[in-house]
Specification:
Helix content: under 10%
Order of helices and strands: EEEEEEEEEEE
Radius of gyration: 13 Å
Number of helices: 0
Strand content: over 45%
């Protein structure tokens, strides 16, 4: 049973935008923080964004600060990642992950996340 399902990936030109969605089911979404990670070919998994149960707990990886915005809609059990000013180096498979919120900001070791999505491919190319 898939607990997290990402969507919204695709091919976009440099400078363009995409909005990824992470639809959750089967657990109390409003008690879980949501993180986005990405993995480019040949590279390690990289933390992109972290949002707690409220928008007040936000954290971004250095490479995406000022360009990406994480948000969530607890009524829809969905997390979002708005990606603007995309660069070729943003090309990767993007994953969302969920863990119980402890009201502290920042990424956690990947082993601490209870649920992971299957990933969605983002390709930035002209």
């Amino acid at each position: 049973q898939l607990r997290l399902v990402e969507s919204g990936g695709g091919l976009v030109q440099p400078g363009g935008s995409l909005r990824l969605s992470c639809a959750a089911s089967g657990f109390p979404f409003d008690k879980y923080s949501i993180a986005w990670f990405r993995q480019a070919p040949g590279k390690e998994l990289e933390g992109v964004s972290y949002i707690g149960t409220t928008d007040g707990y936000l954290y971004y990886g250095d490479s995406v600060k000022g360009r990406f915005t994480a948000s969530r809609d607890n009524a829809k059990n969905t997390g979002y990642l708005q990606m603007n000013s995309l660069k070729s180096e943003d090309t990767a498979v993007y994953y969302c992950a969920a863990r119980p919120d402890d009201y502290a900001v920042g990424f956690r070791p990947v082993g601490e996340y209870d649920y992971w999505g299957q990933g969605t491919q983002v390709a930035v190319s002209s």
